[in-house]
Each structure stands twice: as structure tokens, then as C-alpha cells.
Amino acid sequence: MSAHESQLLQVNIGPQHPSTHGVFRMEVTLDGETVVALRPVFGYLHRNHEQLAEASSYIQTMPYTDRLDYFNSMTSNYGYALAVERLAGIEVPQRASYIRALMSELTRILNHATAIGFMINDMGAWHTALQFGMREREKILDLFEMASGARMMCNYFRFGGVVRDLPPEFLPYFDQLMRGLPAFFDEFEQLLRDNEIIVARSSGIGILPRDVAAGYSVTGPVLRGSGVPYDIRRAEPYGIYGELAFDIPVGSVGDVYDRTLVRFAEMRQSYRILQQIRERLPDTGGGHINPALANFGKQKALRPPAGEAYARVESPKGELGFYLVSDGSTQPYRYKVRAPSFINLTPLGAMCRGHLLADVVVILGSIDIVMGEVDR
Amino acid sequence: MSDQPAAVRLTAALPAAWRDAARLEAHAADLPAVARFVRDRLGYAMLTNLTAVDDLARGEIEVVYHVVSPAGGAPLAFRARTPRAAARLPSLVACWPGAELQEREAYDLFGVTFDGHPDLRRIYLWDDFVGHPMRRDFPRQGDKYIAGAGEE
Question: Can you give the residue ranges of every domain in chain B?
Fold first, then answer.
């Protein structure tokens, strides 16, 4: 045995790197191939979203929330609408709440299908697995386009409801999608769940133990993967979620594999929710928007009374919260976004320590971030 | 919005900690004690949201903490204020590691120094940036970083 002099090496992953999911940089300190320390570096996509919102009327910010988590504009819209409705005391009709939940659950399926695909990209199974997720996502984007006019930047929500009711061609296409989804889940899981690459690259990697996960403020599939059954749809139900039956899947170890399994299981739970919504949707009353705010001029002129409100939704990535302070004018005095992808990065350094450099991108992929929301 | 029974227990248990008990506004020095009580005795294991509000009229910055229990329920909001001219508060990272990036964000955008933070640096803006852009009196136009700003 010979003693080799070894020296720590600093490596920058990103900001221009295919596995950082956007412009994100990690300063990694390596001993050989083992990670000794990792520091995330933010800000490449920072545009002071919050200040722009504070210089705009309330409704002007709605399309801008689409750009936070640009994969899931519907849930971003939902969180913001909920916060303004809480601040101004606006009622939402039953039908509008059903349409909102329907869009949120479709969003969850498209997010998880692609998040799993992108993570497998990072493992080296380049794009083949992702295409299965992308195929289903395309169908869901078609539905979003029918309802809102846009595929990704939907801008579909308004205070007190949604901008327009579902068009006549929506439900037949939706029913067709629903008929195909169980086969997609089966096929996707069959291909990936027990896949040798995935099991080998993800079990025991990036463990976030149950007892520390909540202290790091992580939410969504990252927290549930660590075994904490915390879901805002159950913890503090909003809209119609109090009336719906669904389970909260959790992991046992808290590794990358558990987070992936949670995402697989959550897609099936979203499907269950969509079935319940579809069954009850024809009998819902109240129209797609509160009549007092149906005129767009009323949305523009909204002046919530002075006060503050914090509202949160379970976005596919975790707790998406909006904190608003009103001074009684048409612009928010303070507008703050609690972005799940940003806060879920808090334990990244701790999760990567002791693993190989190649595992870093897999651990990052399992957190499922989107930089539009991280940097704001 | 906030969890009322918990707020009553909190103010009763720490009667001297409050500058304004009705809003759960703590004295800055009592913030760590309030945080420990909230976490250990009331069960709020998660600091879900930490943010600052610039109260220009009163010359103060308010930092708001939203905490939740993993068992569910609405968040509890407590807060502390600090003068704008010398904004300093104790860090809560030792109590909730989840405060780390959020306190850095409040430091970067509002200029609040958190004493005891393990790694307090700017997070979004570059290190030699001057000023804190989320303060209400930060110029919204004509700053030197905007291309062509000095040309008219």
C-alpha cells in the first residue's frame, strides 16, 4: 500500500449545465470523487418578481405568477388567487372551485410524469424515459389550451373564479385522456419502478431522515418521501379538497428512490381525485366566477381592505405560499412568494455530503426544482 | 387566519416577551425564546415562511414568521420589528435549519442582519451590489445597473 498525497478539488457544476435544470450553480468540494461540501449559488434568474408585483395592480400580477413555476402555471395561479381572495374576502362559486381543483390535479400528473423523466435523464438514460412523460403532458397541455388559450402560461384564474367556463370540447377530450391514464401509469411504472439503473442509482442516495426533514422546512414529495404525511390539501384544505377522498403516499427511508415512488403514487391519487371531480362536475352550481367580479374592470379596480393574508396550496413541488399586505390601495404593499423549489434546496448540501459527484445531479433531480420559482 | 388557541397559550406562557401581544409581535431580544417555545411546547416543527415588510412610515422593518405543525392546521404567525437604520434580529437557524436560505433572502433584499446566522451572504444579488432593493425607498428607476440609465 502506498500513501498518496490527496488534495481537495473545487468544481463548479453550472450555471450552464444540462443537469442543473436551468441556470443554477453548485460549488462542490471534492475529495477524489466524494463530495465533502456543496454550496448552492442562486440568483442567475433573479428579476425581483416581488417588487414588480408591488408596482402593479393585483390582477396584473396574475399572468406573472405563470412564470414562477412555468411547468405548473395553474397551481401558481391558484395560490395567488387564494391569497387575494382571503385578503379581500371574496367568495368562490362551487363550480369554479371544481374547475380549479381539476386543473390542479392535471398539473400534478404532468409535473410528476416529467419530473421522474428528467431525473432519469440525469442518471444517464437520456430522454427515452422522459418521452413517456412528455407524451401524457402534451395531452394535458391540449386541455389547458382549450380552457385558457395557452399551453404553459395559462393565466386562467381570476379573483372569485376562473376566466371562462370549460368549452364544450373539453370534457370529451378529458374523458379520452382519463381512459388512457391507468395504462400510462402501469406502463411508466413497469418500465421504471424496478428498472436496474434507477434502483442502483437511487436507493440509499441522498437520504433526508424523517426526524430532520420538517426542521429544514422542505415540503411536497421531498417531505413525504421522508415519511411525513404532510399535504396541504389535507392539513389546511382549500377549495373543495375537504370533500375529496385521497391517500397521502409516504416513503420509509427518505432517499431518492422513495421520492420517486411517492411521485408515482401521487399520480394515481390525482387520477382518483379527477374521477371524483368528473362525476360531480355536471351537478355543480354557481358558474365559473363570482358574478360581482365577472367584469374585468372590477378585477382591475380591486382594493382589498388594509390587512394581511397568507394562503398556501399544495403545488406539485410542495407548499406554494403567498403572503400579502394591503394598505387599502390597488397595489399590494407587500407581496411575497414562498417558493417550494427554493426552500426544498435548503438541505441539498447535507443530502449530498459523502456521496459521489455523479450522485449530486440525481439528488438535485429528485428535489424537482424549477429556477423561475427558485430565483424569482 | 392564525391559530388562536396557540396564540393565547403563547402570550400567557411568555408574558414579558411582547411589544404588542395582540399581533404576536415579540421584542427582538426575546425572539429565540419565543421560537423555542413555539417549536418545543406548541409543536410547530416547521418554519414554513420567513419574510420582511418595510414599514417606511414608522421607520421599522418587520420580520414575519409563519410556522406550522406537521400534524396539520393553519399556520401561526409571529413577528419582530427592528429600526430601518440599523436592522438587526437574532437568527433562528439554530432553532429551525429551514430559516437559513430565507434569512439570507431577507438580508439581501431588505438589509436585515441576522445575528448568529452561520453563513449570512447575499443570495440573489452579487456581493458588491449596493443597497437592498425590496426596501420601499429603493429607487425603482434610473439605478446605475440598468443599461443606458445615465444617458438621457
Answer: 6-86
Encode pLDDT of A36-80 as tens digits.
999 999 989 998 899 999 999 999 999 999 999 888 999 999 999
Q: What are phi and psi of A193, to 5 degrees?
A: -60, -45
Q: Which of B1, B24, B44, B48 to mutate to test the interface with A (most CBs of A within 10 A)?
A: B48
Residue of B nearest to A308 (CA): B1
Q: Give the chain A residue whose CA is nearest to the CA of B66.
A: A310
Tell which A residues from 194 to 223 touch B, by Cβ distance under 8 Å: 212, 214-219
The string of pLDDT tens digits covering residues B10-23 is 887 777 778 887 88
Cβ atoms of A142 and A165 closer than 8 Å:
no
- Write down the residue that cell numbers 368528473 correspond to: A278
**B64 Cβ under 8 Å from any chain A Cβ:** yes
Contact A313, A239 (CB under 8 A): no
Q: What tens digit of pLDDT does each residue of A340-367 get? A: 999 999 999 999 999 999 899 899 989 9
Q: Which amino acid is at A322?
A: F
Find which of B40, B101, B117 to mutate to test the A interface (most A CBs within 10 Å of its CB). B101
Contact by Cβ (8 Å): A328, A303: yes
Alpha-carbon separation of residue A341 from A66, A239, B99, B145 (angstroms): 15, 23, 15, 28
Reply yes or no on whether the pLDDT at B148 is more than 60.
no
| CATH number for the domain running over B6-86 | 3.30.460.80
Q: What does the pLDDT read at residue A298?
A: 87
Which candidate from A43, A46, A217 shows the least CB-CB separation from B96?
A217
If contacts are CB pairs under 8 Å, which of residues 249-268 in chain A contact chain B? none
ipTM field:
0.89
